[in-house]
Design brief:
heterodimer, A: 174 residues, alpha/beta, Collagenase (Catalytic Domain), 4-stranded mixed β-sheet, 3-stranded mixed β-sheet, 6 helices, 7 strands, B: 454 residues, 5-stranded parallel β-sheet, 18 helices, 14% strand
Chain lengths: 174, 454
């Protein structure tokens, strides 16, 4: 089990129609336990933007589930003042969400690449999980906690926490 | 994790915007504060230094552009990014013209926002660094100009450092040529007002009507020739320092006006009626004994006490003879550098001549003599013959034009009982030129009580 998963004690839950084989793959790679059912994203839909308000999804997640919970979505997410978001999490809180919508190569007009998509999804999952535990963005570009607002930057990082962030997690988990 | 924690203030009347940006920037590791209005933002800025303000243009009450103007007028270092929901070229241009670092349109692309913020903070860091370096430079420069190892000069430098930090009025007393303006400049440069102007008024060079309009400004048509409204020196100083040189030369009427300005901190332009609030510090200088002038009834005692809050006495050069070689070397280096000449020092007889002179014109006289020597001398050493100092032992008539002019000016001044207006007329020059000649040659009325001063 990933260190952050153990520290966060969070479960993974699909939001809307999240592909089930992808959900299983993510759970397998990170060791995250799955929560029962799925979250209906409709209340978070913004018809004007044709996007889902991720902040609102966090509220829905907290209402529906107890304990730390991380939603996996395949929806176009946004944070009110920003054009889009790969994900959002309460800093040191209980709920987080990430989406594979803009991690897909198809979104950028390229042929699908499933392996690449899973790699990116794992990084986003671990990134939001890090925030959930209380980690801030990291200056180390290879650290999974480094800020990434484009897939290029997501691809540039590794799927692990740097030494400093790991130490922080260990202290937190101890 | 980031080592340096920058602080960001988000100003927006919409809660959802404040919340999302607060969250977003907190994740980035910034220290974030929020304000729901421009007014709240200003009180937060007054409470602590913030590195960056991100403000919405459209807000009820004071809008983002007004806030930006306020921040600029208060001379805060804070960088400002303006955001808006309605992109318009006009508002973008206005924001940038008012000194905003950047302009972003809602909703922002996350990458654009993070780039804009990173750049703004980088600029902020450079500005702060630049200010600190300039401060250090001006501090070392301000004091280093006042050359001298004597106890008296050391005390003067100490006094400057003490008084610069506080905002009290300073009175600098010293003979002509002792460096009173240099002291005033050093105080200004070391004071919290250093980023504002220092305005110099040579009171002795101005007639009574002129000095009033110089100091207080005038309205259009206030007197013949006043074709335009003009700001006075007190207004021009705008938060800075007003240096009143030769303060003893102003008339009793102007003394009364000046006293009122110092007490009320407001002025009325000549020909005007509206009082205008002014913020300045006064440094006054005189080569006369003001206390004595007060006794004689030629200087208002209340103005004297108002000016004499902190007095700095500059010793004449003859009282700190030990500093002459140091000063001579300082000026030799200064003028050699300026004129691109390669002097390395003085021949022994030259230095002896400098040391034996009485220096009635003080440091200015010494400076003039060295400047001339650098022009006429032959490298690498200054000889005694290069120094234009009267040697009484030689007895021969000094035929240099400068010396003849000096004697002639003294003669005419004495003929007219030191009435400078009449003397200037007789010499066929204007008052200001005469005034500068008097300063240059370090001339003084022989005995003040007998001088027939207007």
């Amino acid at each position: 089990m990933n260190l952050a998963v153990r520290v966060a004690g969070a479960r993974l839950v699909p939001v809307g129609n999240f592909p089930s084989e992808m959900l299983d793959e993510l759970a397998r790679r990170t060791g995250m336990p799955l929560a029962a059912g799925s979250l209906d994203p409709t209340p978070a839909y913004d018809a004007l933007r044709e996007q889902y308000d991720s902040t609102r999804l966090l509220v829905e997640l907290k209402q529906r589930y107890s304990g730390a919970i991380l939603g996996a979505a395949a929806l176009d997410l946004f944070i009110p003042v920003l054009t889009f978001a790969f994900g959002e999490a309460e800093l040191g809180g209980r709920a987080g969400v990430f989406s594979i919508y803009r991690l897909r190569e198809e979104f950028y007009g390229l042929p699908p690449n499933r392996e690449l998509l899973v790699e990116r999804a794992v990084r986003e999952l671990l990134h939001e999980l890090g925030h959930l535990v209380g980690l801030l963005h990291c200056q180390d570009a290879s650290c999974v906690m480094s800020p990434a607002h484009s897939v290029a930057l997501v691809d540039a990082k590794s799927d692990d926490y740097c030494a400093a962030c790991t130490r922080w997690l260990e202290n937190r988990g101890a | 994790m980031s080592e340096e924690k920058y602080s960001i203030l988000i100003v927006d009347d919409e809660q959802v915007v404040r919340d999302s940006l607060l969250h977003w920037f907190s994740e980035e590791g910034y220290e974030v504060e929020v304000a729901a209005s421009a007014g709240e933002a200003l009180s937060r800025l007054a409470a602590r230094d913030l590195d960056l303000v991100i403000a919405d243009i459209r807000m009820p009450g004071m809008d983002g552009l007004e806030l930006l103007e306020k921040i600029r007028s208060e001379q805060l270092d804070t960088s400002v990014i303006v955001m808006t929901g309605y992109a318009s070229v006009e508002s973008a241009v206005r924001a940038l013209k008012h000194g905003a670092f950047d302009y972003i349109t809602k909703p922002f692309d996350p990458d654009d926002l993070s780039v804009a913020v990173r750049n703004a903070l980088e600029q902020h860091r450079l500005k702060r660094e630049n200010r600190l370096l300039r401060q250090q430079l001006s501090e070392s420069f301000a004091i280093s100009e006042l050359v001298g190892q004597s106890e008296a000069m050391r005390r003067v430098r100490e006094q400057i450092e003490t008084v610069a930090a506080v905002d009290s009025t300073v009175l600098i007393e010293g003979e002509s040529g002792t460096g009173k303006e240099l002291v005033a400049r050093a105080i200004h440069r070391l004071s919290p007002r250093r980023f504002h102007p220092m305005v110099v008024v040579h009171c002795g060079a101005l007639t009574e009507t002129l000095i009033e309009s110089e100091l207080f400004g005038h309205e259009k048509g206030a007197f013949t020739g006043a074709q335009y409204r003009k700001k006075g020196k007190f207004e021009a100083a705008m938060g800075g320092t007003v240096f009143l040189d030769e303060i003893a030369d102003i008339s009793l009427k102007t003394q009364t006006d000046l006293l009122r300005v110092l007490q009320e901190r407001e002025i009325v332009r000549v020909g005007g009626t509206q009082p205008i609030k002014v913020d300045f510090r006064v440094i006054a200088a005189t080569n006369q004994n003001l206390a004595e002038l007060v006794k004689e009834g030629r200087f208002r005692s209340d103005l004297y006490y108002r000016l004499n809050v902190f007095a700095i006495h500059l010793p004449p050069l003859r009282e700190r003879h030990g500093d002459v070689p140091l000063l001579a070397t300082h000026f030799l280096e200064k003028y050699s550098r300026q004129m691109n000449r390669k002097f390395t020092g003085f021949e022994r007889p030259a230095m002896e001549l400098l040391a034996s002179h009485n220096w009635p014109g003080n440091v200015r006289e010494l400076e003039n003599i060295i400047e001339r020597a650098v022009v006429v001398g032959r490298e690498p050493l200054i000889r005694a013959g290069d120094l234009a100092i009267n040697r009484p032992s030689e007895g021969a008539e000094d035929l240099r034009l400068e010396s003849v002019e000096r004697k002639h000016v003294i003669r005419v001044l004495e003929d007219f009982g030191w009435n400078q207006t009449q003397a200037a007329k007789a010499l066929g020059i204007d008052r200001v030129t005469l005034y500068h000649k008097i300063r240059r040659y370090g001339l003084k009325p022989p005995e003040r009580s007998k001088a027939n001063r207007a």
